[in-house]
Amino acid sequence: xxxxxxxxxxxxxxxxxxxxxxxxxxxxxxxxxxxxxxxxxxxxxxxxxxxxxxxxxxxxxxxxxxxxxxxxxxxxxxxxxxxxxxxxxxxxxxxxxxxxxxxxxxxxxxxxxxxxxxxxxxxxxxxxxxxxxxxxxxxxxxxxxxxxxxxxxxxxxxxxxxxxxxxxxxxxxxxxxxxxxxxxxxxxxxxxxxxxxxxxxxxxxxxxxxxxxxxxxxxxxxxxxxxxxxxxxxxxxxxxxxxxxxxxxxxxxxxxxxxxxxxxxxxxxxxxxxxxxxxxxxxxxxxxxxxxxxxxxxxxxxxxxxxxxxxxxxxxxxxxxxxxxxxxxxxxxxxxxxxxxxxxxxxxxxxxxxxxxxxxxxxxxxxxxxxxxx
Length: 374
Hints:
Elements: E1 2-6, H1 10-17, E2 24-27, E3 35-42, E4 64-68, E5 71-78, E6 83-87, H2 106-110, E7 114-118, H3 137-150, E8 156-161, H4 165-174, E9 179-185, H5 215-223, H6 234-248, H7 251-270, H8 272-277, H9 292-303, E10 311-316, H10 324-334, E11 341-346, H11 353-356, H12 358-370
Parallel strand pairs: 1-2, 6-7, 6-8, 8-9, 9-10, 10-11
Antiparallel strand pairs: 1-3, 3-11, 4-5, 5-7
Helix pairs in contact: 3-4, 4-9, 5-6
């Protein structure tokens, strides 16, 4: 039996009424506090135990490194149990995007799973691409997949946020035997259509006249992704500020940002007709020049029913960069061919639900994974 639950969130009432079909609509509380959701799920499925096995108050532990096909790759690792891999957002040279994003929720997840949070290719402390051709979504996807292979991961709960949503979705489509569950947070990159870009082509920190690189500017940039700065603990915030500043001041970060934007300019110059027909291709963010082919192919494969892994979409209802309607569009793309699909919306929440509501998001993940097929 498949049921659809609709929470008490006025904007979603109309959406729920349009879903039609033989899905049953009902009103019920799904989460406490400020979390609300629209979910499609299978009921009465046997569940497995994911009791806490470790400390839920510790941090991410020391940064680790591994060679991934010649790329020195940075990651955090902790916990025991079934494998879980976390993929952050942003693109090459983004000073505020790395595995640091998962700081608030990492120890909570590591109490139940064997968690790795990896810095993507050309981001964080992971090496920049070795050649211009690898400033691409194809290379990003391959790097994450090979990281998991080299770590010996055979089955994984895969999670991606923002521009980390597309690579995890593509891996799930291409390797259904590997991905036990898929979770996507606030990702206009994998949402259908060409959502408008919300970041500049080169980070403001690296532009003449831009803000100075210091703790204050990093802290304000972090706050811009939150709905309420009080939703994140002060000690976690300051840990993230220091680590983001360390990434932003790495010479390689600025080098990647500048190279990436130079390649964008070249693409626009050499593909004027394509850019005129599809203006989104002129940008690094949104459906950018470097990733549109992977996005188009992945969405076509999802429509064709190639996504087999139980999938949940989690969104911040007050996300200023990726509005929650994009999440609903993604849900409506996936759910016709995948019954085990859920959409959860957190009210009073920005672009990082797992940072603002780590305990609630952890509870959601545990519930979803417990009730998913083995």
